[in-house]
């Protein structure tokens, strides 16, 4: 078992860190809000006071933070010096491919390795180790973190090649497709309701035959039951951030994405109404409101 650093204990970071500790790994944990990391002490984690203090020279450190700016704040010259030659930084955050490429170059210059390993999972799936990981970067670095990803959250690991930013492109594609699927389901269930068809019957037929994946089953149920607000696992603000990154990546590669523009507007509308506690599935309220439904 390994002694590793873990930076970022949010809704997703907490179950992953818990799983690593339960698998027997030793963790040095840093979170900007220290109190959120305290539950991990009971499982044997050492809570430290800075990102640099979480690092073992030549070792492995995971980061899972909200956005590009937060990650750039962590990867300081002191961070890179502490990681040292041969150290591996596995970034599990959903960030811009441009940022991933720039950070990879900084690590390489200092003799360490940057691996992109964004998480495909909501917290409950991560806790059950039913998530998926996309990884890209140096082959040796990927091999060093593979078992840790399995121990932490992943049922499957998909290798996206040696270009560090590839896994982040993949993550953005995945999140775009989830958002698109939510819009598709919202419009479909609205069509059912407006024409006197029981939307639940439509949901059951579709999600047990043609559209059986967990996105359709799980998010479809949330849309059907109007589960848009409250203590949610993935905030609408983070969803908007991710779709912003999708559109930025599309602009950089001259890729028209009209559906991405639509779901971006849906999320922007949710947040414009001050719904800070909304899950990103609340983008489905756009189709409901447009049709005069609630």
From TrEMBL:
Keywords: NAD, Oxidoreductase. Residues 3-158 form the 6-phosphogluconate dehydrogenase NADP-binding domain. One of its GO terms (molecular function) is NADP binding. The keyword Calcium does not apply. InterPro entries: 6-PGluconate_DH-like_C_sf, 6PGD_dom2, 6PGDH_NADP-bd, HIBADH-like_NADP-bd, HIBADH-related, HIBADH-related_NP60_sf, NAD(P)-bd_dom_sf. Gene3D superfamilies: N-(1-d-carboxylethyl)-l-norvaline Dehydrogenase, domain 2, NAD(P)-binding Rossmann-like Domain. The keyword Metal-binding does not apply. Residues 167-283 form the 3-hydroxyisobutyrate dehydrogenase-like NAD-binding domain. It comes from the Bacteria. Pfam families: NAD_binding_11, NAD_binding_2. The active site is at residue 171. This is 3-hydroxyisobutyrate dehydrogenase. It comes from Chitinophaga jiangningensis. The lineage of its organism: Bacteria, Pseudomonadati, Bacteroidota, Chitinophagia, Chitinophagales.
